[in-house]
Amino acid sequence: MKKFVSTLLVFALMLVFSISAVAMPGMGDTMEKAIKIEPGIKFNGVIQDSTDYDWFEWQNNTSKNRFFSFEIKSPSAENNLQLGVQFYHRSGHGRLSSPLFAEKVGRLHRIVNIFIPAYYGKIYLFVKSTGNKPEPYEINQFAIGYERPGDEK
Fold this sequence. Notes:
Keywords: Signal
CATH architecture: Sandwich
Strand content: over 45%
CATH topology: Jelly Rolls
Radius of gyration: 19 Å
Low-confidence stretches: 8-23
Number of helices: 1
Number of strands: 11
Mean pLDDT: 82
Distance between the termini: 54 Å
Helix content: 10-25%
Largest sheet: 6 strands, mixed
Order of helices and strands: HEEEEEEEEEEE
Number of domains: 1
Signal peptide: 1-23
């Protein structure tokens, strides 16, 4: 009986302290609260309605040029999701670009091989909906490419 209770307690603690890759309310809802991500991230989210956004942020802190690709997947091709990206350049007075929206191909929304110069700053990615019903999605791919062999360092 003691072993059973111990096993049950360990299992319960594992569930309580597990970190989910699903955003909590208020997390990533604005650019200022963007979720910091790294290549290879696995993330599932839900956009509640046309006023809800999920924001993500990646920063090129290297002295090398990079290419990035980002893709989300929806359970259905019949969705109202939009994937966008804005670039923040920290040189000068710091400027935020206008949004660039992803190509939609069936269930996928993708931004492919966007060139990011060295020391460019931050990339802000956002997911939003033009509809008024919950829209689930998952980050299908976030990858960083390199200009030359050896640039990955």
